[in-house]
Write a structure and sequence with these properties.
- The structure holds two protein chains of two kinds.
- Chain A is mainly alpha-helical.
- Chain A has helices at 4-28, 41-52, 55-70, 77-97, 103-128, 134-167, 169-176.
- In chain A, helix 2 (41-52) packs antiparallel against helix 3 (55-70) and helix 2 crosses helix 6.
- In chain A, 40% of the residues are buried.
- The model of chain A is unreliable at 170-176 (pLDDT under 50).
- By secondary structure, chain B is an alpha+beta fold.
- In chain B, 33% of the residues lie in helices and 31% in strands.
- Chain B has five helices and twelve strands.
- In chain B, strand 10 and strand 11 form a beta hairpin.
- In chain B, helix 3 crosses helix 4 (59-93).
- The termini of chain B are far apart.
- Classes of the chains: A mainly alpha, B alpha+beta.
- At the A-B interface, helix 1, helix 3, helix 4, helix 5 and helix 6 of A face helix 1, helix 2, helix 3, strand 1 and strand 2 of B.
Chain lengths: 182, 269
């Protein structure tokens, strides 16, 4: 078993490796039908972070995740990056406004965030870069939203377990206060 | 503070508009890990698929069928090439000098993955800088034009397909020699023709080839067939849709064309 300090050191490298492995799977296998792109586990993780992290931490983490996501696209990386970060921030605003938490609400948020991100990407691409077709954008959004929501439903307990393992509040408190070990 | 938070993502959009190739340091680092893993997964998956389809299910029939299909595709391109030469010869009889075509050599690469974004119809291949690849190199198959190299990593590269909205290729009609720009529509099955003069005679079924005038593709490669023509009552342009000759869903191997001097440079390294 790792100590809390070891966990703190290893959490981020392990997360990086996990995301890289997932991205490799998404690039090669876990593609949505009709060339609708990957499942984008990073976007689902961003929603989870929006629910559980503070605004500044969310900005930093969602930017890091967005950089990772934008590295796997052929062009318009800046638009993809901005859309991911804005979606994470908007998701947090929505979660706070409606006091959302729990698995069911998380699944709904994943679907909402997916649609929001696709719409935002369409607007940003049309404004700053290439001109995508509206029917194509709607079709790809519809093709992706249900798989994203289903993935959100199954990934939520996994994210919770990850947080529980790496944050380990009880053990953390024991390490910080040696008296509590007794 | 909230305003500053929401303004921050504007930065990458404006950085994207400046050409800063060294910004993608992380991308290159990621390519060393993610792309080989993708190749491994793709190979493993295709390996299982091939065992099932080739050894357990109609072994010889499928192999013969594939060989014949490849032969037919090659012959089609060859016939079109001869047709191009014949038409060109007729025109050149009236001229005194032959135009010079740049020479290319091909690097065969396997598709190891697809773009994660639905906004760009891109593919990942297992050849990169080590094989002498550079951005804007043409990507083709025996069926015709596939796309253009967009981002190159050490041993892999991402290319945009001809159906991607960011992809343009200069084309011409085999029948009428009308010139046009073929631009992707962001859908796998169609591309659109841009800047097509209303006076040009363009019909459904016309074959469109590369004109060789965009500085990327050599002349005479198949792009696709026109499937719809829309000639509005007013305006100086007409619009048309094209079905690309390459089926993205069946793409497994591609050839990246390098200009001969680039090939020589890579060999010298």
């Amino acid at each position: 078993m790792m100590t809390q300090t070891q966990k703190r050191i290893f959490e981020w490298p392990m997360l990086l490796v996990a995301i890289w492995a997932l991205q490799a799977l998404e690039i090669s296998l876990l593609q949505l039908p009709a060339h609708a792109g990957g499942l984008n586990v990073i976007s689902i993780l961003s929603v989870y972070l929006a629910l559980t992290r503070s605004w500044p931490v969310l900005l930093v983490l969602s930017t890091v995740l967005a950089v990772m996501a934008s590295a796997a696209v052929t062009h318009s990386g800046g638009v993809v990056l901005a859309a991911y970060v804005w979606t994470a921030l908007a998701t947090k605003a929505a979660a706070q406004a409606f006091a959302l938490e729990g698995r069911r609400q998380f699944t709904g948020l994943v679907a909402g965030a997916f649609v929001f991100r696709k719409a935002l990407t369409f607007v940003l691409l049309s404004t700053f870069d290439v001109q995508p077709t509206l029917t194509g954008a709607i079709g790809y959004t519809l093709a992706g939203v249900v798989p994203a929501a289903i993935a959100g439903w199954f990934l939520f307990p996994l994210f919770m377990a990850w947080d529980a393992y790496f944050l380990h509040e009880a053990e953390d408190a024991r390490e910080l206060n040696p008296d509590r070990i007794k | 503070m909230i305003a500053a938070l929401f303004a921050a993502p504007l930065i990458p959009i404006f950085l994207m508009r400046i050409d800063l190739p060294r910004l993608n340091l992380y991308d290159r680092a990621q390519s060393y890990v993610v792309h080989p893993l993708s190749e491994l997964v793709t190979n493993a998956f295709q390996g299982v698929g091939h065992i099932w389809s080739r050894y357990l299910y109609l072994v010889d029939t499928q192999r013969n069928n594939e060989a014949l299909k490849q032969e037919i595709a090659g012959l089609k391109n060859e016939i079109l090439g001869f047709e191009e030469v014949r038409i060109e010869n007729e025109r050149l009889r009236q001229l005194t000098s032959l135009p010079e075509f740049p020479k290319f050599d091909g690097v065969t690469a396997r598709i190891i993955g697809q773009d994660l974004s639905s906004e760009s119809l891109g593919f990942l291949i297992n050849a990169g800088e080590a094989q002498g690849l550079k951005p804007r190199m043409p990507v083709i198959t025996a069926d015709g034009v596939v796309g253009t190299i967009e981002r190159v990593f050490a041993h892999s590269a991402l290319f945009t397909s001809v159906q991607d909205p960011a992809h343009d290729v200069d084309g011409l009609s085999v029948r009428t020699r009308a010139r046009m720009i073929v631009e992707g529509k962001g859908k796998p099955l169609v591309a659109r023709l841009k800047y097509l003069d209303r006076a040009e005679d363009v019909r459904v079924g016309d074959e469109i080839l590369t004109s060789g005038l965009d500085g990327v593709f050599p002349k005479g490669l198949r792009i696709g067939l026109i499937v719809k023509v829309d000639r509005p009552r007013t305006g100086i342009l007409q619009e048309a849709l094209l079905r690309p000759s390459v089926d993205l869903g069946r793409l497994e191997e591609v050839v990246v064309l390098r200009r001969s001097e680039e090939a020589l440079g890579a060999a010298a390294r």
